[in-house]
Amino acid sequence: MHFGTDLDLFNALDEGVVATDPLGCILFVNPAAERMFGRGAAELVGQPLDVVIPEGSREAHRRHVEDFRQSGARSRMMGQRSGIQGRRGDGSVFEAEASISRSRIGGSEVLLAIIRDVSARKAEEARLLASEQKHRAILDTCSDAILLADADSGRITEVNPQAAALFGCSMDDLLGRHQSELHPLEDRRRLSQAFREHLEIGRVLVPDATIQRDDGTVVPVEITARPTRIGGVRTLVGFFRDVTHHRERERELIEAREAAMAATRSKTTFLANISHELRTPLNAVIGMSEMIGGEFFGPAGHPKYAEYGRDIRDSGSHLLDIINDILDLSRLEMGKLVLHETEVDLAELVDLACRTMAPLIEENGLVCTQRVTPEARRLHADRRAVRQMLLNLLSNAVKHTPAGGRVTVIATCTGSDGEVTLSVADTGRGIDPERLADVTQPFNSGADPSDRGPGGTGLGLAITKGLIERHGGRLEIAGRSVGGTSVRLVFPGNRARPDRGEAPRD
Predict the structure, then answer these.
(1) Which of 107, 225, 404, 436 is in the most buried spot, having the most CB atoms within 10 Å?
(2) Average of pLDDT values for 301-308?
(3) Do 252 and 260 touch, CB atoms closer than 8 A?
């Protein structure tokens, strides 16, 4: 059957046109249909319509066509039927839409289908749907409140459920509000100014913002926002994080720190005051007991009385030393210890400290050696403080070294910046590694039950550490791993003074 020019007018259409007889045999295809199906007219005309329909859809398609024929309707437009699929010559399947109409051409009934390939559109719709689903999933699952606002008008255009929870209202209640209405009245001008300034650089970060809930409650928040374009509209995407818990935690930490500092000040002040109060009567006790023990005004009447007087003097002197240590520690902790810095001769000071400790060294059967190198001999420091540090370290070394052991004092320059190191080493049992971190803490004398010799308050190393740090230096301790204990006082290089040529003391 040939229709001549009756169907030629469809050749110029961009949509594919397929004409079939009532039995579904293809009578005509236009060039657009040829391109759509990837087959020429010579190949398609005379073939059943099934050749351009995927096998799985053929039965359903036949039913739709038969329903149309039986309905008596003249046409069925695109959209009145759900999407259909077409099959190309290479076997690939594409999405399509079609309208169908009945007509008589050349005296014969013809079914005309106008077909549109919508694969690209469907793919774009699927991509947009996936993007929307991803966008919504991000909004809904993010723990922060997210609000989107038109950057030009400032009106809220989209929010997530967390935003509604933060502001204590529904999501619909937030839509259309101006972004400034989210904040307390007194903060709006400041936050609007901050937003304008930050928008110029493309990012907003306001760590100390506040929002006002619908019930009037003011909540501290951290806001991070960034302008972007969504659908061609300049949009401000803002993340609001409730920092109430963090602020409460910060406040608690500050209060705890202030309370601890106040307690420390109170303790230090108490120790300083009570120590001063104790020194006056204690000096009198020491003085009177010394006169009794020395029988300055005649015999005591019984030898034991003189012995008791000396015991009282020794105990009083020991107690006075403890009180002086407490005073020194208090001044260090309160930052009130003033250094009187001069040029110190370390060789002379080391020799003086060793001679001071000589009776105790001899009593314990120890050997003490000293060495001060020329470059380390002169030091800019507080003489009394350096002497006290030396005596503290020597006292510890003697206390913890068994008879026949050795105590060594060395002063030398080390390091590229000329640090002055003053070390006191012994051959005792050393300090257990797990105790190294604690030995400079105050009142630690009872930490090691194996210590030999008289007890103490455990303030010596704490005071020494404080004094060396006041000089800008540091205290270093090496324990048992080196066979004994070595404690080093490291003074910064700028405290060293050039030697004037005197021979070092050995």
Answers:
(1) 225
(2) 74
(3) no
